Amino acid sequence: LDESKATAYTVLTTEPESTPQSPMPVEISDDAELCNRGVPRCHIGKAVDLNGWADELSRVSPVSVFAEDGEFAQYRNIMGDPGFPFDAILTAITPCLNTYFVDSAEEVVLDDAFAIHYNESHCDTRVAKHTDPSDITVNLCLERTEDLEGSQVQFFGAMGLKNKSSVYEGAVDATLIANENFLVNPENGWATVHW
Fold it and tell me: What span, in angstroms and rounded, lies between the C-alpha atoms of 106 and 174?
């Protein structure tokens, strides 16, 4: 089990990053291929009113102060939001957590939770390449319109998962995957889980 941190960033309205060491990233949508790269997805189901929360969290409010001038993406810390369905989300992703990350989801402690809402008027629409400060990150897509471009999460290299003999299990080209940077599109009602 490789517990080192994955490096990722969100690609919003600009082009994904390419470097001389890594070509333009490939978009991966197949769940088995994502698991090979250490990024499983879980369906949240109807336990959470995703549309209601998307509507609530996209409104400008005193809590989302950065959106006031329209320049920056609307950021909101939701750790203390009454009624946000953290328990329902944890229940929905528990099989994924237990299979790929921890021995028991009861080990998981919520450390931080925030929502980011972007629209075309924002100038700041790119999250820089970074390593999340958490042991496990859950990216939950509340809403995505059909005409949305961007908003992928870009990963740099593959990560090992618990209960997989290798990060390359079932992979066609293990060397390619080890050095590959790839994109994951957010899907309505699906959580992307990663180290």
Answer: 33
